[in-house]
Write a structure and sequence with these properties.
It contains seven helices and 35 strands. The chain is mostly beta strands. The longest helix is centred in the N-terminal third of the chain and has 39 residues, at about 45-85.
């Protein structure tokens, strides 16, 4: 099932609102949703090494945490002082300053609902967040979310991995409802390939949700919606930037809406000389990426809308394929497209039909080896939303998906049927119950389900939220069929997850606090086990008996003044595998702090962010903990010109997200953005 996108569905949902007697904003919009997959990541079997290294890291970790706490204590009194010395504002201005949750989210139910009514944990990155943070790629923005650890073995185009609440398989990634995983090897699309200037919102849904999104939704869902033209809009922007170290970027976007027709397009190019990815090598590993997109929507009648959207990404990344072979490279060409129609058939019934196509053609080359990966996916999704009464909505439909592994012999067919009920049992108590039935040509039948509860206690501005879900993740073609590492005897993973949290709003909702506990459990987890490193690298995929991760997330957002916003989050995670194996890429403690200051009548916007990652086991060794400070700023020079600057790794921290692979040193990027 696939999430549809922005303003097009804002138009289409006039149909639903016109026929719906309820005027509540809960009936405001409808969209559709899709799915993708990502392989699990291996573990190592030396818990004693981890213990010895942790003892050596204790002093550095304490110093790091002291720095974080000290910086927080310095920032907060300064913020209070700014609040006290700010000029008086009228009541309307104060209302605008109040921090509020994003109004609506799509990913929880595949149509828009108020976030305050959602029982699942959903984080939202909006257009303003991306602009203020000066993130060239979506990958950078994901790093600041609670419970998320993003890792690269080098620069932005290198191999990508993401740990969410201790789960090392990346969440499924949807781009305007399109499944953007590689049909051949199951790898999720690297968000380091996606330019943020083309994106309107990014939503992260945590927890198992195979019952809504199909197999592989074990670690959650990332739903990315690209930009669209607003009503009667005609606008364009061109951003030019770079630095003195060989980075150049050119980003162009254009949106227009007239009458029943809406059109949006973008063209982006990024090139960097980079740095040496592998520790010990000295040559630079460059990265080049060109991406283009287009989206057309047509409102045939008030009740019938059509759309078509497409994306093309071409990227090349230099890699270090070994200490004696620093001159390898990986390149890919990726095509994503989708078309469909939305029809308000009757007063309570809206029906949608969508067709999607994905092709990924990638290849990794080094001395003595060549690893191609080519796959295609065809998908059809028929979806229906029934407004049964003003308190109850039901989404139901079916999907058919066909995957063709063109790198080797193999194809796969999947049929599914699903339903999702969203009911307000009584005032302020929302209950969700959903289920899914899948028939896979390789792995047979799977049944998954989920349920959520969300209760708002209005007198004390408190929200209780909880969710439970099961998941099913089939091995991908690479894990079963690769000539070097594949294991055709692999069993599918099966999992379950739950979370329970409380959110409290204080000071007229200017300060929002949330504490959420979580638990994940997986049976037959698929991991990669290396059996030999030298002289050749050898290994295979196996199933583990069990894997568990649990912990707690704390997050706070404070609108200290109209112009100053502070955010902080902390996550503790405890992960365990069966036997004596230590889970990889699971930091026990992660911390994110950020401060945003808007001044000079909003012409100048500044952001500071601090990220701390605890030490953690990686593939070959323990990676040290690290603390990174970033700065970003933008200044509106005129109605059409804006200047921007981004300072990464301000303290020039020498750190590695994966042991043995370098991360960027201190660097500055700057540029201008021109609006037409």
């Amino acid at each position: 099932m696939h999430v549809h996108f922005g303003n097009f569905l804002r138009k289409s949902c006039r149909m639903s609102r016109r026929h719906n007697s309820r005027s509540s904003a809960i009936r405001k919009n409808q969209r559709t949703t899709g799915h993708t997959g990502d392989p699990s990541i291996c573990v190592v079997s030396d818990r004693s090494v981890f213990a010895r290294r942790r003892l050596n890291q204790t002093t550095h970790m304490k110093q790091t945490l002291i720095l974080i706490i000290s910086g927080t204590l310095v920032a907060f009194p300064g913020t209070i002082l700014c609040a006290k010395t700010s000029p008086a504002r009228n009541q309307e201005q104060q209302k605008e300053a109040i921090y509020k949750l994003p109004n609506y989210v799509v990913v929880a139910h595949t149509y828009e609902v108020p976030q305050a009514e959602v029982g699942s944990t959903v984080h939202v990155i909006n257009r303003e967040d991306l602009e203020i943070g000066q993130s060239t790629f979506i990958l950078d923005a994901l790093r600041e979310l609670p419970g998320v650890y993003v890792r690269n073995n080098g620069g932005p185009g290198s191999s990508f991995g993401m740990t969410t609440r201790g789960l090392t398989a990346a969440p499924i990634i949807l781009l305007d409802g399109i499944d953007v995983s590689n049909p051949s090897d199951g790898q999720a699309l690297n968000p380091g390939f996606l330019f943020s200037n083309s994106v309107e919102t990014v939503e992260l849904l945590k927890g198992s949700r195979s019952s809504l999104y199909g197999a592989n939704a074990l670690a959650g869902v990332i739903n990315i919606t690209t930009r669209e033209a607003k009503k009667n809009e005609s606008s364009a922007s061109l951003s030019l930037g770079g630095n003195l170290s060989g980075t150049r970027e050119t980003l162009f976007s254009y949106q227009i809406q007239q009458g029943p027709l809406s059109f949006s397009t973008g063209l982006s190019h990024y090139a960097s000389d980079g740095f040496s990815a592998q520790d010990g090598n000295t040559e630079d590993d460059g990265y080049e990426n060109t991406g283009t997109r287009a989206k057309v929507t047509y409102e045939a009648t008030e009740d019938l809308h059509f759309y078509v959207t497409g994306y093309y990404i071409e990227a090349k990344t230099d890699i270090d394929s070994g200490s004696t072979d620093p001159f390898g490279f990986a390149e890919s060409k990726q095509y994503f497209s989708r078309t469909g129609a939305i029809f308000q058939a009757t007063e309570p019934w809206q029906t949608e039909l969508h067709f999607a196509y994905t092709k990924v053609d990638s290849e990794t080359i080094g001395t003595g080896f060549q690893s191609p990966s080519v796959g295609e996916r065809y998908a059809i999704d028929w979806r229906n939303v029934f407004t049964l009464n003003e308190d109850w909505r039901l989404a139901a439909g079916s999907e058919r998906e066909f995957e063709d592994n063109r790198s080797a012999a193999g194809d796969r067919d999947n049929r599914s049927w699903y339903a999702d009920s969203n009911l307000e049992l009584f005032e302020h108590l929302h209950w969700t119950l959903g289920g899914r039935y899948d028939e896979n040509s390789d792995y047979g039948i799977s049944r998954t389900w989920h349920t959520t509860l969300n209760y708002r206690i209005e007198p004390i501005h408190t929200r209780l939220h909880t969710s439970y879900g099961t998941s099913f993740q089939a091995p991908n073609f690479y894990e079963t069929s690769n000539s070097l590492f594949g294991n055709p005897q692999l069993s599918p993973e099966e999992g379950e997850s739950w979370d329970l949290g409380i959110e409290i709003s204080l000071f007229d909702e200017k300060l929002v606090l949330d504490v959420t506990g979580f638990h994940n459990e997986i049976d037959d987890q698929i991991i990669f086990v290396a059996t030999q490193f030298i002289p050749t690298f050898e290994g295979t995929f196996i199933n583990l008996d069990s894997y568990k991760s649990e912990g707690i997330e704390f997050s706070t957002k404070w609108q200290a003044t109209k112009n100053i916003q502070l955010q902080a989050n902390y996550t503790y995670t405890d992960a365990k595998s069966s036997g004596s194996r230590t889970p990889l890429h699971v930091p026990e403690n992660t911390v994110n702090l950020s401060a945003i200051w808007k001044t000079l009548e909003d012409a100048l916007r500044l952001k500071t962010s601090v990220r701390y990652i605890d030490d953690r086991a990686t593939f070959s060794a323990i990676a040290d903990d690290f603390l990174v400070v970033d700065l970003a700023g933008q200044y509106t020079i005129s109605d059409t010109i804006m200047g921007w600057v981004s300072v990464s790794n301000l303290l020039d921290e020498k750190y590695q997200e994966i042991a043995g692979f370098n991360s960027p040193d201190f660097n500055i990027r700057a540029g201008i953005q021109i609006h037409f």
